[in-house]
Amino acid sequence: SNPLHREVHQDMEQPLCHYFIASSHNTYLSGDQLLSQSRAEMYARVLQAGCRCVEVDCWDGPDGEPVVHHGYTLTSKIPFRDVAETINKYAFIKNEFPVILSIENHCSIQQQKKIAQYMKEIFGDKLDLSSVNTGDPRQLPSPQDLKGKILVKV
């Protein structure tokens, strides 16, 4: 791997929508999307490889604890809390640009509240809670403005 590819060679002051963002689909899966294991470590791996947008499929779990897995399949389930803690630990090791959590929400209101509570508790000040009027994408903040921030897209 060419070390020059790790450096930023462009203006990072434009609105976020002006950029292609390295994204991961079914991030939690270690293999195929029907039978494989869901693993929190997969988030550590892709974040360190340069992904800035990761997918988190949230479902109601036992004992009021939301879980992450590929719905309607035999993939294993991992607690949402473990996923959030892994993302928090690895989000900014390799680069400071924002991380977007693409949440696929299948949870009851009660477990959605639990997810929000965990995100606030685990991400703390890194969680970007500013609301954006998406009517005008030119008003979106830039990657430079959002360094060290975790954004939530639902």
In short:
The protein is of the alpha/beta class.
Would you identify the CATH H-level superfamily of the domain at 26-127? Phosphatidylinositol (PI) phosphodiesterase
Mean of residue pLDDT values: 89
| CATH C-level class of the domain at 26-127 | Alpha Beta
Our count of helices gives 3
Provide the low-confidence segments as ranges: none
The major pleated sheet works out as: 5 strands, mixed
What proportion strand?
5-15%
Shape, principal axes of CA atoms: globular
| Biggest sheet strand line-up | 3-2-1-4-5
Distance between the termini: 33 Å
How many strand segments?
Answer: 5
The percent range for helix content is 10-25%
- The helix-and-strand class reads alpha/beta
- In N-to-C order, the SSE pattern is HEEEHEHE
Domain Phosphatidylinositol-specific phospholipase C X: 10-154
Catalytic activity: a 1,2-diacyl-sn-glycero-3-phospho-(1D-myo-inositol-4,5-bisphosphate) + H2O = 1D-myo-inositol 1,4,5-trisphosphate + a 1,2-diacyl-sn-glycerol + H(+)
GO cellular component, one term: cytoplasm
Keywords: Hydrolase, Lipid degradation, Lipid metabolism
Question: What's the arrangement of secondary structure elements?
Answer:
Blueprint: H1 41-48, E1 53-59, E2 67-68, E3 78-79, H2 80-90, E4 99-106, H3 109-123, E5 150-153
Parallel strand pairs: 1-4, 4-5
Antiparallel strand pairs: 1-2, 2-3
Helix pairs in contact: 1-2, 2-3
